[in-house]
């Protein structure tokens, strides 16, 4: 406060009270400017403005959420299980779907191979028949 400032410089204040007030005003002004610059420098160095904006966005999104946010239970096994089980179940269903697709693809390829073998057997019989006929 100005009163505390004047008490610190009591002798000077008694001689020139107006000058003391002017010095105090300049001191406060420069101090505020210096603090604002320091805060801006810290914000710029840490990219805090972007981080604060993303934090504001997260807070706004959380306001619309009806269920409470996840909190750790303090038991690491349960925490990891609650986080991993849904992911692993989803991944398992994906893998099962891919497996069925591959099994179907393999079935079609096996049918094609069998059909090719049958055709080869027919051609071998035809060759044998023509060979006997030629002899």
Automatic annotation (TrEMBL):
Major localisation: nucleus
GO-annotated cellular components: MIS12/MIND type complex; nucleus
Keyword Kinase (UniProt): no
GO biological process: cell division; chromosome segregation
PANTHER family given in the database record: POLYAMINE-MODULATED FACTOR 1
Location in or out of the cell: Chromosome, Centromere, Kinetochore; Nucleus
Protein name listed in UniProt: Polyamine-modulated factor 1
Taxonomic path: Eukaryota, Metazoa, Chordata, Craniata, Vertebrata
Keyword set, alphabetical order: Cell cycle, Cell division, Centromere, Chromosome, Kinetochore, Mitosis, Nucleus
């Amino acid at each position: 406060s100005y009163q505390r400032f004047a008490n610190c410089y009591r002798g000077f204040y008694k001689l020139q009270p107006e000058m003391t007030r002017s010095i105090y005003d300049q001191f406060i002004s420069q101090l505020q400017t210096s603090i604002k610059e320091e805060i801006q420098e810290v914000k710029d160095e840490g990219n805090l403005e972007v981080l604060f904006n993303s934090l504001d966005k997260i807070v706004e999104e959380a306001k619309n959420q009806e269920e409470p946010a996840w909190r750790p239970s303090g038991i690491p096994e349960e925490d990891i299980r609650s986080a991993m089980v849904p992911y692993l179940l989803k991944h398992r269903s994906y893998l099962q779907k891919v497996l069925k697709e591959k099994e179907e693809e393999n079935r079609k390829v096996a049918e094609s191979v069998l059909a090719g073998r049958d055709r080869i057997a027919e051609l071998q019989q035809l060759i044998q028949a023509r060979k006997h006929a030629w002899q």
